[in-house]
Amino acid sequence: MTNETGHTGSCFCGAVQYRLRRDPMFVHACHCRDCRKQTGGPYAINALIERSEVELVAGEPVRHTQQTGSGKPHDIWRCGSCGNAVWSDYGRREVMVFIRVATLDEPERCPPDMHIFTRSALPFTPIPDEAGQCRVFYDMTDEWPDAALARFDRLGTRRLGA
Ligand SMILES: [Zn+2]
Ligand SMILES: [Zn+2]
Asked: Where would I find the CENP-V/GFA domain in this sequence (predicted)?
């Protein structure tokens, strides 16, 4: 992604509105069972970005904490009015969020860089040939562009999958 102009998004009712100050670092399509349950869709599309690059334009999302298989909490931030989830924080890193791409006004600008947990993908869910994919997870060093990896490492948080 080279376009650094802002992305905007909102919950379904519009009480929560946000803006991304720059493009996400990386975009996941996650086919795990938890993501399917939580979104009600065939997979979740999450854009990974620094929390400091997410600007709240209106409203204040409310945190809902889910337990995960890793033992680290998964905080899902929802609109207090309509309940729509706008982003989450897998593993409570706090310095980074996973924007739910379908809540962006132009989600087509954030196609998945990598499909993960494809071992549990539904048999009728197509995965584009041009997208990266892995059965479970991957090594960030192998898959992330250098510039994105540098941004991630500046956050000082543990690597994904670690
Ligand atoms: Zn709402
Ligand atoms: Zn998942």
From this structure: 7-125
